[in-house]
Amino acid sequence: MPTILAIESSCDETSAAICRDGQILSNFIANQTVHEQYGGVVPELASRAHLQHIVPVVHAALEKAGTSLQTVDAIAFTQSPGLIGSLLVGAQFAKSLAQSLNKPLIAVHHMQAHVLANLIDDPKPDFPFLCLTVSGGHTQIVLCESPTRMKVIGETIDDAAGEAFDKSAKLLGLPYPGGPLIDRYAKEGNPERFRFPEPQIPGLNFSFSGLKTSILYFLRNAGKSNLYKEEFLATEEEKQIFIQKNLADICASIQQRIISILLNKVKKAAIETGIRDLCLAGGVSANSGLRKAFEEMGTKYQWRTFIPAFQYCTDNAGMIAMTAYYKFLDGQFSAPDITASARAEW
Ligand code: KG4
Ligand code: ZN
Prior knowledge:
The protein has 2 domains: 3-118 and 311-329, Nucleotidyltransferase, domain 5 (2-Layer Sandwich), CATH 3.30.420; 125-307, ATPase, nucleotide binding domain (Nucleotidyltransferase, domain 5). The chain is 42% helix and 18% strand. It contains 9 helices and 10 strands. The chain starts with a strand and ends in a 17-residue tail after the last helix. The structure holds 5'-O-[(R)-(carboxyoxy)(hydroxy)phosphoryl]adenosine (KG4) and zinc ion.
């Protein structure tokens, strides 16, 4: 019955969770609002905010779980990938704590943890399953054979899906992060009204940069074309009027294209591998259009679909704790000289 304290600090959320025997007892997340005014995450401010939040967040997680540090059997932390300054705060905190309590340390790969968020609540997928992980930094299709054996079988060659949402929103003049706003406006819009191109990328990889360029020209041309042509160029005022009048339809059409790019590759992966249990993970899985289309695809092809609860989709320590639980059972502990890494292979 191991009790694990896990810490996540890879980007701009400081989070701590307690997991006992594979059950998440608490998952406390402190969001950093300081970045909003800059239109994106500022790495140094993120590190400083982690330093500020980490002690109260760990206390809150212990308190919510009704437990204390004395009952903890191992300390887990996100080792990679992420912003290096942010990762170092969590790594150093976890190492010091493990050292002072004389408990083992478990380093966790953030992207593996996003996938295993699907094992937190019931119903759970059977192995092997496929997982589409979509966040602000990543877009991957992962084939998961066991909690400790998984491989990336498709990924983006340029922007991540969350970036595609956020960059499109920025072109529309919406504040950061724009993904949730596109989702909100899209609910009122007609997704068939405007057509954006679907990239022809071989295999199971994704690309979103062409979509971004086509939206840029489409708006510069006030909707007359997706292509760059001098004769279509609109004035700034014409562009703003066009956006104002058509915002819901533009958002719905962009969202529909991002979803079709994602799900066409998931469909291809499911057909090629014959795997019938499909999962979603990452912050973009909060998108209501994606959730609906993912479930409809499952119903149509008789595949089982799984989406973690919202608190386990965005960055959180619950998923780190869950992954650490399986590593604990497998005896995968980390050496005391382990460090954090901005990028690391699985
Ligand atoms: O996983 P996450 O919380 O953080 C990391 O990037 O690791 O994902 C954040 C991304 C942002 O790009 C945000 O715009 C996007 O998820 N996002 C959404 C929605 N909610 C969050 N995108 C579209 N629709 C949403 N409802
Ligand atoms: Zn993440």
